[in-house]
């Protein structure tokens, strides 16, 4: 039951995403292209954050002389 | 009062609420994404990876001057085609308060359609201009129309000036003049042609036309055909109009500075895309001050506003003799086809011999003329029943109810409180298509409009309330709109309305009567 409701809610969010970005008007293969581009760009951003965030945080703390 | 101060009736409330900023941003983003995909698809078509469904030149003609301008149809090809199934839906019954649609499907994303053979029945009609419900096929009401068809046939086979001037046309014109409260009227077979063919007869080179920003294409076409200078003032904005009038009267014609031969202000009674009412008392005051002429196009407002259905002149309490040229159409409130121009006898007599429409266009068909006569007699009460007045009151009540309920639900509605045209703003291009399809699934037919008929950020659904809609039908539509508004998230209004009803009927101060 809970999964059914959660699935309905996610489905409604996906529908809103399609409406707002006007993907609703595009054909299914175009939606796939756009979604793949979006996910790959977002994925690359997350990966870059994961790789570089520790270094950036250490640099900031070093600048404010919280660590040596 | 004894002096000549004209007493005008108060104007209902106007509302043109602006949506929050994020809506405009998302609209542009949506258009941007679809445009990018449009370029991509055009590239695929040019390269040959995708089949092109549009007209293309033959191989032998590729070196000639191009016949089909590719880029101009970009919008049609890449945006309109994707959601084309929401327009031009074939109707297979009369366009009354409910109608039947033919069901159609498309296999190739709206490039071609196939009929399944089924009919979608009893769809509530919220799009037809059937304001007083005269689009009906009740045999009692249409008895005179059937008699006239038997007497005159259907075709006239001539123009008004040659052998097409039937006695039924004379009867219709004198009735129209009486209905509007003017000296004389002339009728034409087509409403669009009434504007586009008669404005050139009234003004010419050396005249100035001051036209509202949102005037209908027929008025713009007539103005351009006439050869007069056209200046546009901001929609319903009297300061803008006065500035243009002052400048016109002071400076005169562009290079010679001679005074203008005529200054004609062109406005409409109800603007069909905005639902706004003209500011008639102010325009009449301006026109008298600067000695200009007024051309009022009452296509949507005749029969639909005013306590007895006589249009915006009656609604505001303006004397019809103050408006120089009263124009209107019979397509909307009278359930027929055609248009009229009314005014002083000299004006109409001049138009009878100088208008292109009168001289060259074929005359109005007799059954159509009889339908207008019986509708007008019904509204005026001449036929002995109070059916006409009942319909006018029913329309006013339906309009107020529908608008009030939509506003309290939280939708953004444009226009004046008393106008039966109700545009509901959708803004985002994706929601426009989704809205129309979802409403059809719920058995309600609506008209959605987008760019280029409206500004690019303001796509809307336009409802036309009719006197033939019962309270039950309106409630069904409102219920579905409520649900759909929550499902699609189109309730953008930021005006909070109180859930508590009005607690008192009287005011606690004295009102002067």
Q: Which tags fit this structure?
A:
heterodimer; A: 68 residues; mainly alpha; 2 helices; B: 513 residues; alpha/beta; Aspartate Aminotransferase, domain 1; Aspartate Aminotransferase, domain 2; 2 domains; seven-stranded mixed beta sheet; three-stranded mixed beta sheet; 15 helices; 17 strands
Structure described in brief:
Chain A has 68 residues and is an all-alpha fold. Chain A has two helices and no strands.
Please describe the topology of this protein.
The complex is a heterodimer of chains A (68) and B (513).
Chain A: H1 2-20, H2 28-63
Chain B: E1 14-15, H1 21-47, H2 74-80, E2 98-105, E3 114-125, H3 143-152, H4 167-180, E4 184-188, H5 191-202, E5 208-212, H6 217-226, E6 229-233, H7 238-251, E7 263-268, E8 270-271, E9 276-277, H8 280-290, E10 293-297, H9 312-316, E11 325-329, E12 339-343, H10 345-354, H11 356-360, H12 366-380, H13 387-409, E13 415-416, E14 421-427, H14 429-441, E15 444-445, E16 447-449, E17 459-464, H15 471-488
Helix pairs in contact in B: 1-2, 3-12, 4-12, 5-6, 7-8, 12-13, 13-15, 14-15
Q: Mind explaining what this structure looks like?
A:
The complex is a heterodimer of chains A (about 70) and B (about 525). With about 70 residues, chain A is mainly alpha-helical. Chain A has one domain. Chain A has two helices and no strands. By secondary structure, chain B is of the alpha/beta class. Chain B is built from 15 helices and 17 strands. Chain B has helices at about 20-45, 75-80, 145-150, 165-180, 190-200, 215-225, 240-250, 280-290, 310-315, 345-355, 355-360, 365-380, 385-410, 430-440, 470-490; strands at about 15, 100-105, 115-125, 185-190, 210, 230-235, 265-270, 270, 275, 295, 325-330, 340-345, 415, 420-425, 445, 445-450, 460-465. In chain B, strands 4-12-11-10-7-5-6 form a seven-stranded mixed β-sheet, sandwiched between helices. A three-stranded mixed β-sheet of chain B has the order 2-3-15, with helices on one face. The longest helix of chain B has 27 residues, at about 20-45. The chains are: A mainly alpha (about 70), B alpha/beta (about 525).
């Amino acid at each position: 039951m809970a999964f059914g409701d959660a699935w309905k809610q996610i489905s409604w969010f996906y529908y809103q995403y399609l409406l707002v970005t006007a993907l609703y008007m595009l054909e299914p293969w175009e939606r796939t292209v756009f979604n793949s581009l979006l996910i790959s760009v977002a994925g690359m951003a997350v990966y870059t954050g994961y790789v570089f965030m520790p270094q950036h945080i250490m640099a900031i703390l070093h600048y404010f002389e919280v660590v040596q | 009062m004894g002096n000549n101060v004209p007493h005008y009736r108060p104007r209902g409330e106007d509302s043109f609420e602006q949506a929050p900023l994020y809506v405009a941003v998302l609209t542009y983003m949506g258009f941007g994404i679809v445009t990018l995909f449009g370029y991509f698809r055009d590239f695929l078509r040019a390269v040959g990876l995708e089949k092109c469904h549009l007209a293309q030149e033959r191989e032998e003609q590729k070196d000639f001057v191009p016949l089909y301008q590719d880029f101009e149809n970009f919008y049609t090809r890449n945006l309109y085609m994707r959601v084309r199934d929401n327009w031009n839906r074939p109707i297979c019954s009369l366009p009354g308060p409910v109608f039947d649609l033919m069901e159609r499907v498309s296999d190739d994303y709206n490039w071609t359609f196939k009929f399944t053979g089924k009919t979608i029945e009893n769809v509530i009609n919220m799009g037809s201009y059937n304001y007083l419900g005269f689009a009906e096929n009740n045999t009692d009401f249409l008895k005179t129309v059937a008699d006239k068809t038997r007497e005159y046939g259907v075709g006239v086979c001539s123009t008004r000036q040659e052998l097409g001037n039937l006695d039924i046309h004379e009867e219709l014109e004198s009735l129209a003049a009486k209905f509007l409260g003017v000296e004389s009227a002339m009728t034409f077979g087509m409403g669009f042609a009434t504007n586009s063919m008669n404005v050139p007869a009234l003004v010419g080179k050396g005249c100035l036309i001051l036209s509202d920003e949102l005037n209908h294409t027929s008025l713009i076409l007539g103005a351009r055909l006439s050869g007069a200078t056209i200046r546009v003032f901001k929609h319903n904005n009297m300061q803008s109009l006065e500035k243009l009038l002052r400048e016109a009267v002071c400076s005169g014609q562009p290079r010679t500075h001679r005074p203008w031969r005529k200054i004609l202000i062109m406005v409409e009674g109800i603007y069909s895309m905005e639902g706004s009412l003209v500011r008639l008392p102010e325009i009449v005051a301006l026109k008298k001050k600067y000695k200009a002429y007024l051309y009022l196009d009452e296509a949507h407002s005749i029969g639909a506003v005013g306590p007895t259905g006589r249009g915006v002149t009656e609604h505001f309490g303006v004397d019809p003799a103050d408006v120089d040229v009263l124009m209107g159409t019979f397509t909307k409130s009278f359930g027929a086809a055609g248009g009229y121009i009314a005014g002083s006898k000299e004006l109409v007599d001049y138009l009878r011999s100088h208008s292109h429409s009168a001289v060259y266009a074929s005359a109005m068909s007799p059954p159509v003329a009889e339908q207008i006569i019986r509708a007008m007699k019904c509204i005026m009460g001449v036929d002995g029943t109070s059916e006409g007045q009942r319909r006018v009151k029913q329309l006013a009540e339906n309009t107020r109810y529908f608008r009030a309920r939509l506003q309290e639900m939280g939708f953004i509605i444009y226009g004046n409180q008393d106008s039966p045209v109700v545009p509901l703003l959708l803004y985002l291009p994706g929601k426009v298509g989704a809205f129309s399809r979802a409403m059809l699934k719920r058995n309600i037919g609506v008209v959605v409009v987008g760019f280029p008929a409206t500004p690019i950020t303001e796509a809307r659904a336009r409802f036309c309330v009719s006197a033939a809609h019962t309270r039950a039908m309106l409630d069904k539509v409102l219920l579905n709109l409520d649900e759909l508004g929550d499902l699609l998230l189109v309730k953008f209004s930021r005006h909070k309305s109180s859930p508590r009803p009005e607690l008192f009927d009287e005011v606690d101060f004295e009102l002067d009567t």
